[in-house]
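pasting for the record
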Amino acid sequence: MDWQQVFNRSLKYDAYLQTGTSVHRDRWRSVYDRVQLTEAQRSLLASFTRRMNVFCLSGVWCGDCVNQCPILQRLAEANPLIDLRFFDRDEDTALRSELSINGGQRVPVVVFLSEDFYECGRYGDRTLSTYRRMAANSLGAACPTGIVPAESDSMAAVVAEWLAEFERIQLMLRLSARLRSKYGD
């Protein structure tokens, strides 16, 4: 997969939201307004020194995306070295197939890329705390609609899990022999 080409075709957060309806945008904004980063989380993100290109396959209509993508945006806003982009799952069948999870067309799926567009990792469709909450509720089929926002404790857990993945990739980039040689650090 040519990740640079995919990344270049993708949209920044606000432009991506414009592809949805006003109802979709309102749901995303509602979650975005509720996302709170702690001072420690903001400090950690501010300490990142390597550029990260972060690509999210998503759907503005998707409840899981409503509850997670605004978190991704808040994380990206905390450091200008994080370039976050979005692409609609239904716009590219080859990309959708490449990023399938467990044989399904799940979203969101995030692909973490180095500054020069090498793939560093993938993460999606739900975080562990979300799956634990779903399992505790019933183990039945469930797909949140985004109509009812996640509880604050649940959101804090999801924020922490996404932040841990951003940190893992940042450390991978920071410790990369290739990048350390390039930057002499």
